[in-house]
Design brief:
Radius of gyration: 20 Å
Strand content: 15-25%
Structural class: alpha/beta
CATH class of the domain at 32-58 and 94-276: Alpha Beta
Distance between the termini: 27 Å
CATH superfamily of the domain at 32-58 and 94-276: Aldolase class I
CATH architecture of the domain at 32-58 and 94-276: Alpha-Beta Barrel
């Protein structure tokens, strides 16, 4: 297993299979590359089936244990089942999707070896959903979640980006996963440095405080400084308040939800140096470039065509990985995050947002 200069082993890869999408979500950053929704037809620059599988075989050689297939919308790839089926043994497979293509395909994906699925769902109202995603596919997404559950992919994790347009929907979404067995909720902090519109950002600690008051119990995942909140369908039974959590009512992570209990996890990387210090993933873009960090596009490296080229690109990408918060970005005297001049001086002052070959 490869380890970077900061002692972080690379145990997982995220593979973008396309930057095409049938949605046009207002917060989209397309795996850090920017919202590039385009034609729905397959594009010439997309990784071929064999090239994706060859890369996964190389990653497995280096001890990578898990792959998450992403997009764009990865289910626009007609060969997705084949890719999942040909994923090397011992590598866990998961998928992030908007869910619209799961009806009719979820069972085949499970048969091919898919183990987990995340479905993007930012609201529980068709009109609100349409405004956020610029699509009219709300009912289809709900059908997709049911198809995933029916195919045995429980728990299905719902992804919800928390920002100004969605913050008011959080309580209803929390109730939704509490009331429906087989669902979990992942609240994802909005990242304005990738998606723009800094005025949309909300204080994620306010969400944490509300959840702590709502939850029956709270677990703390020390590795990424993440918190998981377990909630029942009856808010009157909540047993861990924000004050209790601060006084030691937070448990260390230990083992999942109980029957009749929903799990809500907050993914809050913005300004969280612990999150970056424990990042164990690299990313592969839809057109064949490895990147060591979601937030950066100045470290893109072409994987080439052959296994030998891919091995070299993988080694070099891991060797040059730098925690974004805490190293690439550092806090000034006012506690604000700013680009680390010392790092830029050492690397030739590259533009962190320039997608280049």
């Amino acid at each position: 297993m490869l380890e970077d200069a900061f002692g972080r082993e690379v145990t997982g890869v995220r593979v973008s299979l396309t930057d095409r999408c049938n949605f046009d979500c207002v917060y989209c950053h397309n795996e850090g590359l920017g919202d590039t929704r385009g034609p729905m037809d397959a594009q010439d620059d997309e990784l071929s089936t064999d090239r994706v599988v060859r890369f996964l075989e190389v990653a497995r050689e280096f001890g990578v244990e898990a792959v998450k297939f992403t997009g764009g919308e990865p289910m626009l790839r007609e060969d997705l089942e084949e890719i999942v089926r040909r994923t090397p043994d011992g590598m866990e497979t998961s998928l992030t999707t908007n869910g619209t293509f799961l009806p009719g395909r979820a069972e085949a994906l499970v048969d091919a070896g898919l183990e987990r699925v995340n479905v993007s769902q930012d609201a529980l109202d068709a009109e609100d959903f349409a405004e956020l995603t610029r699509s009219g596919a709300y009912d289809r997404v709900l059908e997709g979640v049911e198809a995933a559950l029916d195919a045995g992919l429980a728990p299905v994790k719902l992804n919800m980006v928390v920002f100004e347009p969605t913050a008011g929907y959080v309580p209803r979404m929390v109730d939704h996963v509490a009331e429906n067995d087989g669902l979990q909720l992942q609240l994802i902090e909005y990242m304005p440095e990738l998606a723009g519109h800094p005025e949309w950002a909300v204080d994620i600690e306010d969400v944490h405080d509300w959840l702590a008051d709502r939850a029956d119990r709270v677990e703390h995942r020390e590795m990424h400084d993440r918190r998981r909140y377990y909630v029942s369908s009856d808010p009157g039974t909540s047993g861990v308040t924000a004050a209790a959590a601060a006084d030691g009512g937070v448990q260390t992570a230990s083992g999942g939800a109980n029957p009749g209990e929903g799990m809500v996890e907050v993914v809050d990387p913005v300004g969280n140096a612990e999150f970056c210090a424990n990042c164990h993933r690299v990313r592969l873009t839809h057109d064949g470039y490895l990147k060591g960090c979601l937030n950066r596009n100045d470290d893109l490296r072409d994987i080439g065509e052959s296994a030998a080229e891919m091995r070299a690109a993988f080694r070099d990408t891991v060797a040059e990985r730098v925690p974004y918060y805490g190293e690439y970005m550092v806090q000034n005297d006012e506690g604000e995050w700013e680009v680390n001049d010392a790092y830029l001086d050492a690397t030739g002052d590259r533009d962190p947002y320039q997608y280049s070959e």
